[in-house]
From TrEMBL:
Keyword terms of this UniProt record: Amino-acid biosynthesis, Histidine biosynthesis, Hydrolase, Methionine biosynthesis, Multifunctional enzyme, NADP, One-carbon metabolism, Oxidoreductase, Purine biosynthesis
Binding-site residues for NADP(+), renumbered to this chain: 165-167, 231
The Tetrahydrofolate dehydrogenase/cyclohydrolase NAD(P)-binding domain, residue ranges: 139-280
Subunit text: Homodimer.
Family per record: Belongs to the tetrahydrofolate dehydrogenase/cyclohydrolase family.
Protein's UniProt name: Bifunctional protein FolD
Pathway: One-carbon metabolism; tetrahydrofolate interconversion
MF-aspect GO terms: methenyltetrahydrofolate cyclohydrolase activity; methylenetetrahydrofolate dehydrogenase (NADP+) activity
General function of this protein: Catalyzes the oxidation of 5,10-methylenetetrahydrofolate to 5,10-methenyltetrahydrofolate and then the hydrolysis of 5,10-methenyltetrahydrofolate to 10-formyltetrahydrofolate.
Gene Ontology biological process terms from the UniProt entry: L-histidine biosynthetic process; methionine biosynthetic process; purine nucleotide biosynthetic process; tetrahydrofolate interconversion
CDD domains cross-referenced by the UniProt entry: NAD_bind_m-THF_DH_Cyclohyd (cd01080)
Length: 287
């Protein structure tokens, strides 16, 4: 048995095509979704992510404004800029590209963004709404993972989902979204004892640890669904995941590749959240 590969790149493209049509209709009503991305410093990975976001925004018709600030930008300057953007009606989404320089407090910056414009889904108010099962802006990578599972009609309710990793960006929120879909969720992390036992019992396995080939096929249950969130650069310079794809695909029923897996869905859900924010702001969002 060889797993069916879930290509996030294909799902992302079909969702972006739908968004493109939706934005044309919104623009006819005078609603122009606007996203402002703030990039501080010269981090090559961050620059690459931001380019991807701009390209995708252009494709679907979202107005994307990139503000590039020097590494020396102070926390006060950044907070003052966010305050201005919070008040600007043409801006529906504010995204501050992480990581930030060490002299800027990430938490303080995330909390300064208006929850109504927090299209990353990181503000504590939006996290609280997600925790209590309310409609909100969900964090983009976890939200994208749920869309990938649903696109293949994979049953989530009643399944044992094991999440490896507990970051605020992926691990914790994806577990919560799976719980909201009625899965039974186990979190594993660096302090977990007998991790292999948990992995072996997973119907749905989400791996987000940032360690190349941390999981191989021997670990997983026959027929498990494996979602690989890791992006690691090999010694040869190619990208690979946290899962050994070749061995895992022989046991899994579904698996995501790296690249072309979860990554493209993250930007797609960011655009989804931005369009939703514009619709809410103009009173045309109906859930």
């Amino acid at each position: 048995m060889s797993a069916e590969v879930i290509y996030g790149s294909e799902l992302a493209q079909s969702m972006r095509d739908e968004m493109k049509e939706e934005v044309v209709k919104l623009r006819e009503q005078g609603i122009v979704p606007g996203l402002t991305v703030i990039l501080i410093g010269e981090d090559p990975a961050s620059k690459s992510y931001v380019r991807g976001k701009q390209k995708a925004s252009d494709y679907v018709g979202v107005d994307s404004d990139l503000m590039t600030l020097p590494e020396s930008t102070t926390e006060e300057e950044l907070l003052s800029l966010i305050k201005k953007l919070n008040e600007q009606e043409t801006v529906h989404g504010i995204l501050v590209q992480l990581p930030l320089p060490k002299h800027i407090n990430e938490e303080k910056i995330i909390e300064a963004i208006s929850p109504e414009k927090d299209v990353d889904g990181f503000h504590p108010i939006n996290i609280g709404r997600m925790m209590t099962g309310k409609d909100t802006f969900f964090p983009c990578t976890p939200f994208g993972i749920i869309q990938m599972l649903k696109s293949k009609n994979i049953e989530i309710a009643g399944k044992h989902a094991v999440v490896i990793g507990r970051s605020n960006i992926v691990g914790k929120p994806v577990g919560q979204l799976l719980l909201n879909e009625n899965a039974t969720v186990t979190y594993c992390h660096s302090k977990t004892n007998n991790m292999k036992d948990y992995i072996a019992s997973a119907d749905i396995l989400i791996v987000a640890v940032g360690i190349e080939h941390f999981i191989n096929g021997d670990f997983i249950k026959e027929g498990a669904v494996v979602i690989d969130v890791g992006v690691n650069r090999t010694a040869e310079g190619t990208l690979t995941g946290d899962v050994n794809f070749d061995s895992a695909k022989e046991k899994a029923s579904y698996i995501t590749p790296v690249p072309k897996g979860v990554g493209p869905m993250t930007i797609t859900m960011l655009l989804h959240n931005t369009i939703k924010s514009a619709k809410i702001a103009h009173g045309v969002y109906n859930g």
